[in-house]
Amino acid sequence: MTGRVRPRRVRLADTGPTVFTEMSERAARYGAINLGQGFPDTPGPAPVVESAIAALRAGHHQYPPVPGLPQLRRAVADHQRTWYGIDLDPAREVVVTTGASEALAAALLALTGPGDEVVVLEPYYDAYAACVALAGATLVPVRLDAPAFTLDPAALRRAVTPRTKVLLVNTPHNPTGSVLPPASLRQIAETAVAHDLLVISDEVYEHLVYEGPPHQPLATLPGMAERTLTIGSAGKTFSFTGWKVGWATGPRDLVEAVTAVKQYLSFASATPFQYAVADALRLPAAHFTGLLDSLRRRRDLLVDGLNDAGLLAHAPRGTYFVTADIRPLGERDGLEFCRSLPARCGVAAIPHQVFHTDPDAGRPYVRFTFCKQEAVLDEAVRRLSRLRHSRPASTLRTKGTNP
Questions:
Q1: What sign results for the dihedral spanned by CA atoms 74, 75, 79, 82?
Q2: Burial of 6 from C-beta contacts in 10 A (0-12 / 13-18 / 19+)
Q3: Identical fold between 19-44+286-388 and 46-280
């Protein structure tokens, strides 16, 4: 007997493959250089690779403790003290996660739920909206003002309601590459304290600030240490995005809440890589300055190339992303532009629309990454120069326009 299957309500049911997957597939289809997805093509520090190999050869193949290896938690705590003067108890105020993405998901699942609102700075990394939806909470965007992507403190205050539970902040900021100045950080802190809000501070690009004041964690501001959960990652700083080693630090109650959820997501994270990342966090300062100098050169190469190709791009202060305005090319729709780009000139990028709640917002902006070898960027710039002589995407019929 065949029974009827009742309709099921599935969270994220309307969410297909991410735009990163789509654009990476298009890059492969057309042999394009992928400047969309932010993964470096450099090998990372050789001593850290050797640390991972040594851990594998030593037989470290089994589950680590759920909160992470003690030596890695100590290294994270030491890192926060050395760079920012933050004192943490590595046994109670640090948890290791499977990348920053798990830290973010576990934090939102642990700290928010139906009826709660999460205020985020828009444009935002697309996982923010997905994780808020999984928690059953409501995402409330506060748009950063283009083209400098600055924060309007009045807009932030207006976004807070009695239902607001969490401010989710990201600086240095993906996708724009902007870095919130000290005045904006103070305004965020004052709003959080005034309304007794929790803050999740995504600081995975903390070591990628090229000019101006260095990175300042929100947790260092008055009234913030007791309410801020800070998320970090080895992937961006050491070019090991595939290792998926991240962490969350902060007050014991918040870290314990994240750990309680994390144990039912991944349980624990890759043991050999945890040994290696503990060593990576103790690399001399020359590693961090050398990485910055290298990325600054690559940033300038790509920014100059984008402007020469007819787009309008400004050098970002942080991250390894550049936002470009496509309107000088006669383009109006970033998604259409990015879908056509691999076929038109052999380069892939990401449209800003996917980083906004309102699909019309961010329409003329596109994100490129420069965390590639200089030779790769040189070739990408050469290919992008074809845009000066090509018709706008709206006039072209390209293969596979729909996702």
A1: positive
A2: exposed
A3: no
pLDDT confidence of residue 159:
98
Q: Residue 2 has what DSSP assignment?
A: P
Largest distance between two CA atoms of the chain: 71
288 membership: H or E segment, kind and range: helix 285-308
More confident residue, 395 or 73: 73
| pLDDT per residue as tens digits for the range 49-96 | 999 999 999 999 999 999 999 999 999 999 999 999 999 999 999 999
Residue 49's region, left for phi above 0, alpha for psi from -120 to 50, else beta, is: alpha
Which tokens belong to 2?
A: 């065949």
Residue extents of the structural domains in the chain:
19-44+286-388, 46-280
Q: Which of 236, 237, 227, 115 is nearest to 168 (CA)?
A: 227
Gyration radius from the chain CA atoms: 21
pLDDT tens track for 164-222: 999 999 999 999 999 999 999 999 999 999 999 999 999 999 999 999 999 999 999 99
Topology of the domain comprising 46-280: Aspartate Aminotransferase; domain 2 (3.40.640)
* In 250-317, beta strands by DSSP E: 312-313
When pLDDT is cut at 50, 70 and 90, the band that residue 34 belongs to is very high
Q: Quick one: tokens of 96?
A: 């290791």
CA-to-CA distance for 395 and 344, rounded, in angstroms?
12
* Distance of alpha carbon 12 from the chain centroid: 20
Name the class of domain 19-44+286-388: alpha beta
Where would I find the beta strands (DSSP E) of 85-177?
Answer: 94-97, 117-122, 138-143, 164-170
The full length of the chain comes to 403
Angle between the N-to-C axes of helices 271-280 and 70-84, in degrees from 0 to 180, rounded to the nearest 10: 30
The rounded percent of the chain whose pLDDT value lies above 70 is 93
123 exposure class (CB count in 10 Å sphere: 0-12, 13-18, 19+): buried
Q: Reading across the β-sheet that carries 350-351, which strands appear in turn?
A: 312-313, 321-325, 365-369, 350-351
